[in-house]
């Protein structure tokens, strides 16, 4: 009986490897299978057009110049994340022999995450009433994004754990500031979106252990972004300026 089970596992393993890359050392970047490459491109490429359309909707719902600028900042960060991610994974899939080009796209993919985080907070920091100290976060969040991008430029893939810590800090610090908002509408959705991002990190770190782990991470990112977009649309733009807190 044990011999039959072992034989089946040996037969199943090569089939599984068709869909999942092998585990790589921490010092190296994983190499997806053909199926995983396609899934990585599709799971973020699908959201490019919806993110552009959704961002345009916020722009047209804007009642003043400050809201228009904020919609533009948020929309650029949102659509930029999906566009750059799709471009990088496409280049990694089809042009992997161009190592310098692939590395540059990978750097840009990592950099844009910092600006996506900053852009996701921009509507709340710009359009909601905040405490005196918290108001400085409107500018600090962009400084953090620039510092994070500089770190990627100079220390790309040098320390993956530190990279993850930087993204986590960037995502958590402004969230703490938002707790000072007198108007708490949207906090539940912000928390739910954050939970999806955090759960997705589990799959982000599971390449080589779970088939399509990176694509699953992409799906969690898309769900988190969708929840945050809904909150921004509902509580900051769709209600009209007369319903919002004074700025």
From TrEMBL:
Sorted alphabetically, the keyword list is: Membrane, Transmembrane, Transmembrane helix
Provide the protein's localization: Endomembrane system
Q: Give the source's domain of life in one word.
A: Eukaryota
**A GO-annotated cellular component:** endomembrane system
Cite a single Pfam family from the UniProt record: HlyIII
Q: Which PANTHER family match?
A: ADIPOR/PROGESTIN RECEPTOR-RELATED, MONOCYTE TO MACROPHAGE DIFFERENTIATION FACTOR 2
The protein here is known as Monocyte to macrophage differentiation factor 2
This chain's source organism reads Ameiurus melas
């Amino acid at each position: 009986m044990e011999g039959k089970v072992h034989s089946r596992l040996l037969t199943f393993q090569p089939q599984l490897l068709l869909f999942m890359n092998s585990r790589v050392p921490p010092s190296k970047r994983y190499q997806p299978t053909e199926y995983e490459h396609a899934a990585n491109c599709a799971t973020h490429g699908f959201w490019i057009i919806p993110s552009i359309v959704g961002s345009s909707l916020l722009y047209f719902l804007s009642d003043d110049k400050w809201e228009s600028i904020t919609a533009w900042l948020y929309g650029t960060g949102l659509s930029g994340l999906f566009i750059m991610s799709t471009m990088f994974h496409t280049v990694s899939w089809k042009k992997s022999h161009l190592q310098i080009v692939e590395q540059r796209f990978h750097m840009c993919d990592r950099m844009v995450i910092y600006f996506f985080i900053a852009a996701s907070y921009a509507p709340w920091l710009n359009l909601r009433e905040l405490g005196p100290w918290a108001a400085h976060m409107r500018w600090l969040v962009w400084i953090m994004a620039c510092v994070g991008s500089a770190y990627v430029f100079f220390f790309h893939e040098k320390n993956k754990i530190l990279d993850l810590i930087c993204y986590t800090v960037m995502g958590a610090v402004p969230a703490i500031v938002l707790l000072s908002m007198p108007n708490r509408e949207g906090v539940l959705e912000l928390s739910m979106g954050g939970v999806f991002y955090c759960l997705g990190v589990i799959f982000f770190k599971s390449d080589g252990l779970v088939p399509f782990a990176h694509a699953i991470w992409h799906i969690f990112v898309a769900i988190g972004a969708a929840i945050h977009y809904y909150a921004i649309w509902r509580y900051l733009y769709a209600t009209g300026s007369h319903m919002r807190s004074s700025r």
